[in-house]
Amino acid sequence: MPILSLYLSRILGNKILLKNGEILGKLKDIGVSTALTHPIAISMLVKTKSGVKEYKWENIKITKKFGQYELMCTNPVEAHNLKDILYLSKNVLDKQIIDVNGRKVVRVNDIRLALLDKGLFAIAVDIGIEGILRRLGFAKPLKKILKRFGKTISSKFILWEDIETITRSRENIMLSKTYHKLATLHPSDLADIIEDLDLKAGIDIFSSLEHGRAADVLEEMETDTQRSILNELPVSKAADILEEMPADEVADILDDLNEEKVEELLNEMENNASLEVRELMEYPEYAVGSLMTTDFVAFENTLSVEEAIRELRLLKPDEDIIYYIYIVDESNRLLGAVTLRDLVISEPNTPLNEIMNKDIIYARDMDSIKSLIKTVTKYNLVAIPVVDEDMKLLGTVLINDIIYELMRSGKTFARR
């Protein structure tokens, strides 16, 4: 049997004939199995004289006569209690889907089917303008007109395996049960996808992520989306995700929530994490302290190079917080800094206080962000430590935080 390729829109609403020539009804929908990688038709919804009934997709023959598709069912068998089923018209057509390779949300305008010896399979979705025109009945006549001028209507398809393909409660977004494809996307791409979806669908995807991954995605979202998601998530889950984020990022996000919600979240978070965030939120918006992160690496000056490297291996710090390794005394007062290069080229037994740079540039937590920007620009710094009046190390400000602040606010200084 040759492969017959057709579109869902071309057979929906068509009459289904019985062997004796009588009409069973009109095709309303096709149900495909979601238990297989390539969804195969297992049922059909038929509008009969006595109402809509579901039949097994068995003994169905599709033939093309005079440019139209004819459906015949030689032995209709009603279907009951089917599991793992996706209705192509109800659950997929006109719905938003996630194009994983394209890293975006698109709309399904039609569905391409393939009739093989083993059955009818859904093989791709049509997201182009031709799909809409086809359903309106304009595709063929318009193609003929355009052909005279050497023009064509571009087709745009996404293969079934390149989309996320299980519906959420038969509503507006198709998702994978395992979300394994979404998990491979960069947090920024995933944040863009969630922002393009309706809130309920976005919450479904966001809730499926493990806490660390969700924290990375939340950081990449726009303020309005962050606020909406945190307001919709259960407080316990939202708090768990916030605990995975740097305290300064959490403080920035909570700034945009109402006070009641902020207190609710902070009270749910672990005490240490909550305390760090509260301290940062107390800084005025113009102060360096409002911009600093409390994630940094600091060692006491009595440690040796070998001991410091061993500690770094245990800490496994993120790459953006080890531009400099700060050296402090037993009271956590800032004494100097070393770089990774300093550690690598120094003898293992050398104390850190012998190789540290004592002429370190720093900022105080109550300095203005405006003055901080001047200092960072003047000395071409990628990070700058922040201390209090007693020179105790409180945190650090990274250059990317300053750039992000300026880009987001459009001002010389502001809290985001």
Question: Which tags fit this structure?
Answer:
7-stranded mixed beta sheet; CBS-domain; MgtE N-terminal fold; 17 helices; disordered C terminus; SH3 type barrels; 35% helix; elongated; 416 residues; 4-stranded antiparallel beta sheet
Any overview of this molecule?
This protein has helices at residues 8-11, 88-92, 129-136, 139-148, 187-196, 199-208, 211-220, 223-232, 235-242, 247-254, 259-268, 271-281, 305-315, 340-345, 352-355, 369-379, 399-409, and strands at 4-7, 15-18, 23-33, 41-48, 51-56, 60-65, 68-73, 85-87, 96-99, 104-107, 110-116, 119-126, 157-159, 166-167, 174-175, 298-300, 325-328, 334-338, 363-364, 383-387, 393-398. It is built from 17 helices and 21 strands. The protein has three domains: 4-159, PRC-barrel domain (SH3 type barrels); 185-282, MgtE N-terminal domain-like (MgtE N-terminal fold, Alpha Horseshoe), CATH 1.25.60; 298-412, CBS-domain, CATH 3.10.580. β20 (383-387) and β21 form a beta hairpin. With 416 residues, the chain is α+β, with helices and mostly antiparallel strands. The model is unreliable at 165-178 and 411-416 (pLDDT under 50). The strands form six sheets. Strands 2, 3, 4, 5, 6, 7 and 8 form a seven-stranded mixed sheet that branches. The chain is elongated and about 95 Å long. The protein starts with a strand and ends in a 7-residue tail after the last helix. α9 (235-242) packs across α11 (259-268) and α10 crosses α12. The longest helix is centred in the middle third of the chain and has 11 residues, at 271-281.
